[in-house]
Amino acid sequence: MKRAIKFVTAGMAIIIVLSLAGCGPEGEHRSYTVMLSQTETAPQYSSTVEMLEAVRPTVVDVTSYSTDSASAGSGVIIGGAIAGEYSEWQENSSATAAYDQYFIITNHHVIDGGQSFEVDVLNIEDGEESTKMYEATLIGGSFKRDIAVLSIRPEAGETFACATFADSDKVKVGTEVFAIGNPLGILGGTVTHGIVSATKRAVALDEIGTMTLMQTDATTNGGNSGGGLFDASGRLIGINNSGYETYNGQSVEGLNFAIPANDAKFAAKSLIETHEETGGTVTKYGEVTGDVRLDVSFTTAALYTNSAHTAMGTYLVAAASSTESPLYRYWSNNYAAILSISVDGAKTAFTGNVESSYELTDLADEVLSSVTAGKTVVIEYRSVLSRTSGGSGIWGGIWGGTTYNYLDSTTRTATFTAQQYVYEP
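Structure (tokenized):
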């Protein structure tokens, strides 16, 4: 996966319009209410060129600085707030609004580990392009959703274009899309073109675990992470976050992924609403209420049921994708074949009546998505072991026989209580 902790790829789009309210004059505590609406009527442009001229300024370059390095990604301006009053902007991606503060959605892995942030905003006027750098403030991040929100404060009289979101649940395979971002961290505002290849894929990402993502063949590269995937009407249907360069040792092309817009907007709304500021300084980072860090990746595999390999079955195979996973102390770096998962006593079996590998992964995604802070999780599993069946004579000595995977004979149980996740740099 070219998921890259800082530089990543993917493409997808979302469509929603959002307005934000801020209350309290500068120097006092401020809270925010995010009002989301969806537009069924797509903006009308005379050409793709006109659409991109309106949409490209909503996508920004993001630079994250740690103590000894810098890394690059992308982001999308999604709305803003005015101190002391409610503000709403028009439902089209070319609209601009005068806000005291603008909010930018990006990927969590773009900002992860950063201590300070800069955002480069594109301006297009009379066909001429220019950019301007702004210091950005971290509002909050969700690790499991790979979404974070930054904010920037414009100078007096400055306004920025805000992206329009679409209902990603209504996006169909074959939808024409445009990925916009900052590939390689040096080519801001780059546009690539493709289609939606699939609307829901269970994709295992390094460290994060398995996410349900949109798939596109629009070309993306390192630095595109956090940028937008837009439809032909200029509406945002997803946030780019990952892509494959190789798979099982084979080079691949056109396998890029994005967080669906509805999932991205839900996380961004929660992060903005739960963060707190005093005098323009964030005093509490935002969170997605109920969000937990599981760090579990899963797939399916055909496994022998015993070391004698007399029978075989298809199992959901899971692993702890980082040492932060509550399951790492049970599984460490090993794999487990899941027999059942219980969430607050509601048990779901992953053997017996499950008919296909697709059903297994869909079921796992559904069950693990239901795990929120405070819930007790009990997982029954059998460890996945491997064995080499040695050959005889010269061939056994040269090739070492055949290695196959099988299940340990013991059924084990992992139990934990899910904890609320709040990212603090």
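The first strand starts at residue 17 and ends at 23. Residues 296-417 form one domain.
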